[in-house]
Design goal:
By secondary structure, this protein is α+β, with helices and mostly antiparallel strands. The chain contains four helices and five strands, in the order H-H-H-E-E-H-E-E-E. The protein has one domain. The protein has a five-stranded antiparallel β-sheet.
Length: about 190
């Protein structure tokens, strides 16, 4: 049984990592269009769910939107994804990648979007340069593309950043301590 669970964990983690590798691979312009469209759709969904965020996004130093696929099997979780970071001061977009590894009880796989709202220019610039976040996450989600619900919270250790998690699809019940790395996508910038 332990051998089976070990193999199942490796398989689940490999599937999540490969799913993240399925990020747009067309030519540079097409990949950017796909990410820009994901960004626009995610922001519209955020504004419908949390109307007050429209003004927060406009008034902040910038924001970031990521598409993430995450899996958790018993005590190990992980995910991978892609997105962009937008600087409100100069209107520039920085295309980015992400990867996550976590420990904690849970079971499930989900496709979700993360939106970061940066209140200060310094934190935005530090995120784009260093891109590392360490935090906790607890959520329950059961959602198909158009049905279901979610209950979630995202904990971050920086007061200058608000983070929203929007589940697109999947089923998950998890509580994990996770390290997430965000970095510039050398192929798209």
């Amino acid at each position: 049984m332990a051998k089976f669970l070990g193999r199942a964990t490796v398989f689940a983690m490999a599937a999540v990592l490969l799913a993240g590798c399925l990020a747009p691979r067309a030519d540079k312009a097409q990949a950017r269009r796909v990410i820009d469209q994901m960004n626009d759709e995610t922001l519209e969904r955020l504004y419908r769910s949390y109307p007050e965020t429209r003004n927060k996004v406009r008034a902040g130093a910038g924001y970031a939107v990521f598409n993430n696929t995450n899996a958790n099997l018993l005590l190990i979780g992980g995910g991978t994804g892609y997105g962009l970071c937008f600087n409100n001061a100069d209107g520039s977009r920085t295309y980015m990648k992400m990867a996550q590894v976590g420990l904690g009880p849970g079971l499930g796989i989900k496709d979700y979007r993360l939106v970061f709202i940066f209140r200060s220019r310094e934190v935005l610039e530090r995120f784009m340069a260093n891109g590392w976040e360490f935090g906790g996450q607890a959520d329950a989600a059961a959602k198909s593309l158009d049905k279901g619900g979610e209950l979630g919270t995202q904990v971050t250790f920086q007061r200058e950043v608000e983070v929203y998690s929007l589940t697109k699809a999947g089923v998950a019940l998890q509580a994990m301590l996770a390290g997430t790395k965000y970095w510039k996508n050398a192929d798209l910038n």
